[in-house]
Design a protein that fits this description.
This protein is an alpha/beta fold and 236 residues long. It has nine helices and seven strands, in the order αααβαβαββαβαααββ.
């Protein structure tokens, strides 16, 4: 049994609170670009017929549904999240989709996955690794459950390198986003978002952490002027 830290419990409770409006605010605050980022991330997977994919921090199931829409019917997907409120929203979306028989949801943290080793052909996590308290342990768990040759794809916010774009981005992120989030949901959650992005490692440092967890053939793709980054690593 994995015991969440005080910080982990706080993050879980925060996402429970914002779950009902999570999808609405994602689309609104990203101007819909988050869908394009998820499509690009899922496109980095290589899943064989009859394969299995794990989507960690699945939230309301957006990535799990995207994977299902772009893989053969023989591929099954497991969506995992430690926040029950998010999974409730995800269950409703998946139940209304044509992929409901292919997607199963599990309530568990990234650092302690209830899956056997070497069972998945691909593992994804979108905008979730930033919220994992013990990131190295979370990455090690992702590596453990992958089959040899399997691929991990991680989508996360990052910090733009252009000075001008960075200043505009930070103004939006620090001033506008928390205000809009506060009007429609919980302001503290949308204050946490920019704070957590600003403290997240840069691309080279995060790839080094992935390497420490055992991943090889590491690479990254910056998206939309560096607002988001997709990291790809494989299990040797």
């Amino acid at each position: 049994m994995f015991n969440l830290s005080e910080k982990g419990r706080g993050i879980r409770d925060m996402f429970d609170a914002i779950a009902p409006r999570y999808d609405l605010l994602n689309r609104l605050l990203s101007l819909g670009i988050d869908r394009r980022w998820r499509r690009f991330a899922v496109g980095q997977l290589q899943i064989p017929n009859g394969g299995k994919v794990l989507d960690v921090a699945t939230g309301t199931g957006d990535v799990a549904l995207e994977i299902a829409s772009r893989t053969p019917d023989s591929v099954t997907i497991v969506g995992e999240d430690f926040t029950q409120g998010m999974l409730v929203q995800g269950m409703e979306k998946i139940a209304k989709s044509p992929y409901r028989r292919r997607i199963a949801l599990v309530n568990a943290p990234c650092e302690a996955m209830p899956h056997p080793s070497a069972i998945f052909d691909g593992v994804t996590i979108a905008f979730g690794i930033r919220n994992v308290v013990d990131r190295l342990e979370g990455l090690r768990e992702m590596h453990r459950v992958l089959k040899p040759g399997g691929r991990a794809v991680i989508l996360e916010f990052s910090n733009p390198k252009s000075r001008l774009f960075k200043s505009l981005y930070y103004f939006y992120f620090r001033r506008i986003l928390p205000c809009v989030g506060g009007l429609l949901s919980k302001r503290s959650a949308y204050q946490y978002l920019p704070d957590s992005v600003l403290e997240f490692p840069d691309q080279q440092s995060f790839k080094a952490l992935m390497g420490q967890a055992g991943f090889v053939n590491l690479r990254h793709h910056d998206l939309t002027c560096g607002i988001a980054t997709v990291y790809v690593g494989e299990k040797g």
